[in-house]
Amino acid sequence: MATAQLLYEEAAVAFPNRIDRTVELAHPPARVWAALTTAEGLASWFGHEAEIDLRPGGTGELRWEDHTSPIRVERVEEPAVFAFTWPIHGLPDSDPRRTYVEFTLEPTDAGTRLTVVETGFAQLSPEQHDQAFGGNVEGWAAELGDLVAHLAAHPDAA
C-alpha cells in the first residue's frame, strides 16, 4: 500500500521536486566540513557574510549583497551530513514554506565526494516552481563553483 501511495504522489507532481548535485573535491572531509558548517567557511563561498548555530534547531543567516536568507539547522552528523531549511526564493518573507537542503560528505581516495540535495519544490504552484526551482538550479551551480574555487585558493585553511 505504501508503495502504491508513493507512486501516486510522485505521478501527481508534474515538475521536479529536487535539485541534486555531486562534486568531487580534492580536499579531505574535515576541510570541506569546515567550509560548510562554520560562519567563516560559509561566508567564503556561500554569500558574503554568515552566522550559524551548528546544532539541530539552531539558526543562522546567509547574506549576499542583495538579500539575506535565514536558515534553520536540521541535521548535524559530523563529518558526514549537514542539513538546513530555508525560505523559498521568490515567495514573500511571511510565507512559511521552506525547502530542505542536505550536504552529504563521503571520503574518497582523492578527497571528498560532496552531494547536495534540495527538496520541497512540489509544494509550489507551477509559476512559483518555475521561479524558485530555476533560480536555485542556477544558484547551486554558481555557489558550488565558488566552493570549489575557495577550496582551491585556500587548500590549508581549516
Q: Secondary-structure map with pairings?
A:
Elements: H1 2-12, E1 18-25, H2 29-37, H3 39-43, E2 49-52, E3 59-63, E4 68-77, E5 81-87, E6 98-108, E7 111-119, H4 126-153
Antiparallel strand pairs: 1-7, 2-3, 3-4, 4-5, 5-6, 6-7
Describe the fold and architecture.
By secondary structure, the chain is of the alpha+beta class. The chain has a single domain (18-153), classed as Alpha-D-Glucose-1,6-Bisphosphate, Chain A, domain 4. The protein is built from four helices and seven strands; from the N terminus they run H-E-H-H-E-E-E-E-E-E-H. A seven-stranded antiparallel beta sheet has the order 1-7-6-5-4-3-2. A hairpin with a 3-residue loop joins strand 4 and strand 5 (81-87). The termini are far apart. The model is unreliable at 1-12 (pLDDT under 50).
Overall mean pLDDT stands at 90
**Oligomer category:** single chain
Q: List low-confidence stretches.
A: 1-12
Number of strands: 7
Alpha-carbon distance between the two ends: 48 Å
